[in-house]
Predict the 3D structure of the following.
Amino acid sequence: MIRYIFKRLLRSVITLLIIVSIVFVLMRQMPIEGYFPNFDHMSQEQIKASLAIMGLDKPIPVQLFNFLKGVVTEGSLGISYVYRDQVPVTEILATKIPLSIKLGVLALCFALLVGLPLGTMMAQNKGRFLDKLGNAFIVCIQAVPSAVYFLFIQIYATEWFGLPLTFKEAELRTWILPIFSLALPNISYYGMWLRRYMVDESTKDYVKLAKIKGLSGAEIMFKHVFRNAFVPLGQYLPTTFLNTCVGSIYVESLYSIPGMGGLLVDVVKRQDNSMVQAIVMLFASVGIIGLIVGDIMMTLLDPRVSFVAKKESR
Amino acid sequence: MGMRYKNPKVTKLEENVTEAVRTKLTDEEAFKIVPFDASAVEKTGYSNYSYWGSTFRAFSKNKVAMLLVSAVLLILLFTFIQPSLPNQLDSFQININPDTGVIHRNLPPGSMGKLENGKEFKFILGTNELGQDLWAKLWGATRNSLLIGFTVAIIEAIVGILAGVLWGYVRQTDLIFTELYNILDNVPSSLVLILVSYMAKPSVGTLLLAMSLTRWIGMARFIRNQIVIIRNREYNLASRCLGTSTFTIIFRNLLPYLVSVIMLRMALSIPEAIASEVFITYIGLGLPADVPSLGNLINVGRKLMLSPSLRYQLIYPTIILSIVTISFYVVGNAFSDAADPKNHIN
């Protein structure tokens, strides 16, 4: 098990390294305006001198090496020049990340709290009205772009319930809509998959046995079917993680939440190359970390899953 | 919204196709000894099972899906014939009242206005803040968004199939493709979308490239897995011994198995591509204003959302967008049920 995790980590580090390098090299192809807040007012000499100070005049492999060295030795992700002049990227991120994590975790908890009962309810009423209703909800959430329904939630929920349009950390009621919005895609996601797994499980022999033994429908559902159906959901953790991250890009910007997602939209609009680079790298790493965590969760949730023996299957 | 999410229907159809492909009959199952039966001497029997026939029959039983297919086809048809219908304005034309010289800005739906040629015109969906006819704009936008969706789906299919075939057949490429899969499958596709759009100038080409960049790998992986299973089957071995070219083997012996999954993936790509366009336009990296698209319209409508009287500019594009995306999603899922050989038995 430990060996497996170690191997996985090593692989992920390699993947991450490749991603970081690709992003880095791609960003070097950008026009250099993205490094100067007042590019139009600078002379050629000034630009050249500044580039030399930033180390941007060196060949790309050298720059990449310096960047990686910075990441490893100082934990530095570069310096922002446009969004905030001459401020290390990590310093800016440090003020933004905690809020995003708080929102993400709350949204995830809310999604599980609603999504799991939804899936269970649908599986219990398979083919009946409640199942169809839940299915219609899931189809709408999955098919209609979240960019659209997030917007409508903001417009109408603020009007109907008198909730404020913008987020303030101290005001608890401003948290409601962002969390609800962020949770929606995950609610439908967990509902959809749990329903499928529960329906699949409910045709298995052990359920028949339980029925013969005379257990009630609810007991079979919760004591047997739900537990077994829940296990594979562990592997959806990374996706939910990503859903929340990507959703936060939009939601945070809609409600002017000073978090990571809103920041990405900001720096893209203001064309700050080093910030875009750092945030893209960070989001990508989050995806990969989520994947590992999901796999490890699986082994912890289900003693039958073992990655050591599974090797020959692929 | 460009999220990497797995659809249970896609997974299920893939699993069942894999299972159908993998099933290997033992000799006893394949050859059954049938004793002589005098009553069956004159009997001529044949199986009238046809895969696509059954698929179509199963699909046409799903009334909701049939309704939505018609809805999408009607919308698609209408976007193309709308410009040549009588009494249509150009979607870029700025409409000015010739008597007063006032531009018809933000007219509510259904209002009348005098055009420059002196005629009274009814703006069915009103006008936008530039004085352009929203009806014409909406259909132009729907046409463009659908075209983008279809193009992405087609690129995904072509690149995915070719890459999958290469991945499955040429062993040397396995390492590269696997690593590529690790990367593309783990990075949120929205991020790639943002990165590519950030680097290149906003245009239809950029958007297509950015969206196609991550989509093909899922298709390629499925095809690769099937190929690895099928390629050394006896009938393929026989084909090869008889001198059939690899190309023919792939397209005649392998791909027919996989068409249903390919079509399902393509159908689900269309709403996702349309959604990605809306998302990237919001970030400010979408199509330029001279290419009307649903994303552009919604983004314009979003800026006006705080004044309820102008909200029609957001709501109408949203209605069309929702009909189109929901239709494709439902139709794709219904198709996957219909195409699943397991559902053909009854």
About this structure: The beta strands of chain B are 111-114, 120-123. Chain B is about 65% helix and 0% strand. The two ends of chain B are 37 Å apart (CA to CA). The longest strand of chain B covers residues 111-114.
